[in-house]
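User: structure tokens for this one?
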Amino acid sequence: MFTNIHVNPSPSSAMATFEGIDLNNQAYQAKLRGDFPEAERLYLSAIDVKERHLGPNAITTALSQNALGEVYLQMGKMEEAEDNLTKALAVRSAGGPPFDAAVTRENLAQLAEMKGQMSQAKALRLRGAPNTIVCANSYCISKALSLGALKHCSNCKSVYYCSEACQGIDWRSRHKNYCPSPAL
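Assistant:
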């Protein structure tokens, strides 16, 4: 028989949690404004606070690392994106909700696409099969889906979508820049 044991967090870890949340929220707002250098600065501060007080393997630390990785993708800083996303995936795969790990895998898959590594991108996405793959459209609000419920890019067959609408959005905003040319 298991017993739930509730431990009250120390005042310093509780304050760090609130400070980290506040920094994340500010960083997210900067990201929405397109101020990526400011978002980067704020996410780095959030990670520093969380690592010092909650540890590098805390789920909330991984959340900030994933968000920073997304900012680095938008900034074209591929090495920094890969470093943060890899750290986030290790934590999220070990103990977070499966959806969170799927989001980070998708981010790493998009990084692989940017590098022209389509087979690696597909393999990263398929690590969530059969039931934990997310739509490649970053603006999609769907949950993790099963492989059978998803559509794929008819050209590279490496990217998965929940609908034709999401595929069209992602094609115009991102994927067309990385998808190999169709064979003629």
